[in-house]
């Protein structure tokens, strides 16, 4: 699945980009059964471990369930990644596409410890994608802002404006202390000028 899912995703991206949503739906309608068939063939080697893979119909049922649950896991990973969660390099992200399918397949193994390990893997992924990753992204964003302020010290916060001062909305040149803070005065009507 680590090899098949990125190929399927790339195919969906290319057909969707070139032909729109309709072409992407057609590509998915053709690619998903091929991927399920690949999983069913892989399930032949797991028939001694997974009782559901003992028959041809059971193997295809297992393949459909693993494909569906794994695809939900990949979609959740993509949602977490789009929220600025660091998942590593491109090679690591490609390798991680197979993990949800492996975890989904592990839930069908009758061993209690295998299922417990799969549940722990799901819990760790949810914890990282929901809590640790976004916190890490905020820290990285803060560090980038600090680096930007060190590079351009004129952007640093200098304090609150004095009472009676106003800030211009825009200026044409680089800001200076004379052009950014100008004293304002109260007119007879009570409005600030």
The average pLDDT score comes to 75
Oligomerization state: single chain
> What general outline do the C-alpha atoms trace?
elongated
Radius of gyration, in Å, reads: 28 Å
Instruction: Provide the succession of SSEs.
Output: HHHHHEHE
Secondary-structure-based class equals mainly alpha
Strand content range: under 5%
Total strands: the figure is 2
Helix content: 55-70%
What's the arrangement of strands in the largest beta sheet? 1-2
Low confidence ranges: 179-187, 189-193
Largest sheet: 2 strands, antiparallel
Specify the number of helices: 6
Head-to-tail CA distance between termini: 68 Å
Task: Describe the secondary structure blueprint for this structure.
Elements: H1 4-43, H2 56-82, H3 90-96, H4 99-106, H5 112-151, E1 165-166, H6 177-180, E2 182-183
Antiparallel strand pairs: 1-2
Helix pairs in contact: 1-2, 2-4, 4-5
